[in-house]
Amino acid sequence: MITRRRLLGMSLVSLGALALGSGLRQIAFAADAFEVTHTDAEWQKLLTLDQYAVLREKATEPPESSPLNAETRPGLYACAGCALPLFSSTTKYDPGEGWPSFWAPLPHAIVTAEDHSYGNNRTEVLCRRCGGHLGHVFPDGPKPTGLRYCIDGVAMVFKPGAVG
Ligand code: FE
Prior knowledge:
Blueprint: H1 4-11, H2 40-46, H3 49-55, E1 75-79, E2 85-88, E3 92-93, E4 101-102, E5 110-115, E6 122-127, E7 133-138, E8 148-151, E9 156-160
Antiparallel strand pairs: 1-2, 1-9, 3-4, 4-8, 5-6, 6-7, 7-8
């Protein structure tokens, strides 16, 4: 049986080259390489319906729907699926698109994959630890990276506090 996770794995590209500027390196990874794995039934118990739709089925939350858009306190944004810290408040900015956005992820927090869905050529952002879909990254962000990580707020949990 071909599971959704296996389809995901087969759709990922194996490019070692730098893409879209510094800081975004597309890497190859196998479908079962994620440290945190669950069956679909387990994910459905662990996540809310909206979290499951985004993290496991790659849905996109409606723009302007996330309370995290307005979050300005210092802290870390962690994966709602596995709690891995993904982004720091120090890289958060508002491009006016309607989703929480950052110009860089935390080190070793995310992986990327080519996404050709809906006839577009986009770069998908996934949690490095559980493979959860987080959003996309675009090459129109601010300095110093020039990248815009456009992330579904429902895929993250904000942990206010000092940013190391
Ligand atoms: Fe995760």
